[in-house]
Write a structure and sequence with these properties.
Number of strands: 14
Bound molecules: manganese (II) ion
Helix content: 40-55%
CATH class of the largest domain: Alpha Beta
Strand content: 15-25%
Shape: globular
CATH topology of the largest domain: TIM Barrel
Largest sheet: 8 strands, parallel, barrel
Number of domains: 4
Number of helices: 18
Distance between the termini: 27 Å
Radius of gyration: 24 Å
CATH superfamily of the largest domain: Aldolase class I
Length: about 525
């Protein structure tokens, strides 16, 4: 059997579906480009019929990201399949991913059909998708709660209708590793094409914290494609964390005997980008990509680790692209030094971007003696925002302290260069800044989340502010970084407001909200 496991990334579809992770089209394209560098095999770029924004994202990614397979999701009906095909029209390697529920629970309560009607719908629409493209994936949704014999019957019909990949989703995160491996073995016995001429895939959710374990058990039983998201984001408790799958296979070839073709050195940069764009911080103890994943605190461990790293470290952090945190650049490093360091970190800024970044870099180097890789990464995310700047922050000034009324003055410009200035008081400096901005921008919203993190150790560290604002039940994230946390807070708020202003048109129709 094939000793290569395909990595199917659905960060842009299942990941983006999670509450509060809405991304702009340009942000999706930026993530897709990074996933191409990571060398994943398949990128599921969206669910084209669900919204104009999803359609546009799939179309743009299909046109600009040429190496991996680009997949688009479709329910088993002609309109969905045709819309997916249209979005993928210009793709180098298009795949239509058709799904329909297979469990009685879903068939009766969600679809109001009987079993045979559902099998018929699946087969007809797989055949329809095959008229558009050669590469068609089929997922019987809620497989892990489906009657085994019926699941095999449906998979048989899907293969006969022309599906080239069969994906078994544990949609609700219900499976247990041994049992899930048993299901994979059973299906391979019933439908011998699986693992032979038809690729067998799994898609697990983390409701019981077992998505990675279930996926790996399935690989051991013969699955040769794993679906998941970077950082394990996704519906409810999330999807399989792809970085964990990738490194488990690579660290334990003795056990699995299979590997992916992923360029693991891009894992850290990808994780960081997804975290910034989705607004979901990575927990410090997260496997592979958490900031503590390679830190040794215990004295005995440290001592042994310094003598020989492999005593307490099973993965060399360099292998997953964790940036070195020692001093790299200072005030006197020129544009060239900055550029070559950025390239080493995986960025390729244009000349125009480099000009802006260099300016921001010298301003940080003025305030902070040492500029580390982590500072540079924060700087890059700050300067390369993919959000249209309807309003830009020019300056912010505050007065605050004990026995003082917090007061802020802000100065903004709009896209035509018109300048606006106003001032406000508040319960603290950030509140005053936000109220002053509100007086100028006039976009009603409520702040639901505010957090400050320091990028590196030290009192002069760059502070990164992440916020979430809400309008009409929709959430928008904003980020800003600066050595001054008031300035970082103002930047984050402007980023969220600009996102809200530019995303008005890409809401999803509610009936399309459920998926694999
Ligand atoms: Mn899913």
């Amino acid at each position: 059997m094939d000793d290569r496991v395909l990595i199917f990334d659905t960060t842009l579809r299942d990941g983006e579906q999670s509450a509060g992770a809405a991304m702009t089209v340009d942000e999706k394209v930026e993530i897709a480009r990074q996933l191409e560098k990571l060398n994943v095999d398949v990128i599921e770029a969206g669910f084209p019929i669900s919204s104009p924004g999803d359609f546009e994202a799939v179309q743009k990614i299909a046109r600009e990201v040429r190496k991996p397979i680009i997949a688009a999701l479709a329910r088993a009906n002609p309109a969905d399949v045709d819309r997916a095909a249209e979005a993928l029209k210009d793709a180098a390697h298009p795949r239509i991913h058709v799904f329909i529920s297979s469990s009685d629970e879903h068939i009766q309560h969600q679809l109001n059909k009987n079993r045979e009607e559902v099998v018929e719908m699946a087969a007809q629409n797989i055949a329809r998708a095959r008229k558009h493209v050669d590469d068609v994936e089929f997922s019987p949704m809620d497989s892990s709660r489906t009657d085994k014999e019926f699941l095999a019957h449906m998979v048989r019909a899907a293969v006969d209708a022309g599906a080239t990949t069969i994906n078994i989703p544990d949609t609700v995160g219900y499976a247990i590793p041994e049992e899930f491996a048993g299901l994979i073995t059973y299906l391979r016995e019933q439908v011998p094409e699986l693992g032979d001429t038809v690729r067998l895939s799994v898609h697990c959710h983390d409701d019981l914290g077992m998505s990675v374990a279930n996926s790996l058990a399935a690989v051991k039983a013969g699955a040769r494609q794993v679906e998941g998201c970077i950082n394990g984001i996704g519906e409810r408790a999330g999807n399989t964390a792809l970085e964990e799958i990738i490194m488990a296979l690579r660290t334990r070839p003795d056990y699995f005997g299979v590997d992916s073709q992923v360029n693991a050195k891009q894992l850290f940069a990808t994780s960081r980008l997804v975290s910034q764009v989705s607004g979901f911080a990575v927990q410090p103890n997260k496997a592979i990509v958490g900031r503590n994943a390679f830190r040794h605190a215990s004295g005995i461990h440290q001592d042994a680790f310094l003598k020989k790293a492999t005593t307490f470290e099973i993965i060399d952090p360099v292998e997953v692209g964790v940036p070195r945190s020692e001093l790299v650049l200072g005030k006197l490093s020129g544009r060239h030094g900055l550029m070559s360091r950025l390239e080493e970190l995986g960025y390729t800024p244009t000349d125009e971007e480099l000009g802006k970044i260099y300016e921001a870099f010298t301003s940080i180097a003025d305030k902070k003696r040492e500029v580390t890789d982590r500072d540079l990464i924060a700087l890059m995310s700050n300067e390369r925002t993919s959000v249209v700047e309807t309003y830009s922050l020019v300056s912010v000034q505050v007065t605050c302290g004990s026995n003082a009324i917090a007061t802020a003055t802000v100065h903004l410009t709009d896209q035509t260069g018109r300048a606006f200035t106003d001032a406000a008081t508040g319960s603290g400096p950030v509140d005053a800044v936000y109220k002053a901005i509100n007086r100028l921008v006039l976009v009603p919203n409520s702040l639901t989340d505010f957090s400050v993190n320091s990028v590196t150790e030290g009192i002069d560290a760059v502070g990164e502010v992440s916020i979430r604002i809400e309008q009409d039940d929709r959430q928008y994230i904003g980020r800003g970084a600066d050595t001054d946390i008031i300035v970082a807070s103002a930047k984050a708020y402007m980023n969220a407001l600009n996102r809200l202003l530019s995303m008005g048109d890409i809401s999803r129709s509610p009936e399309a909200a459920t998926a694999v």
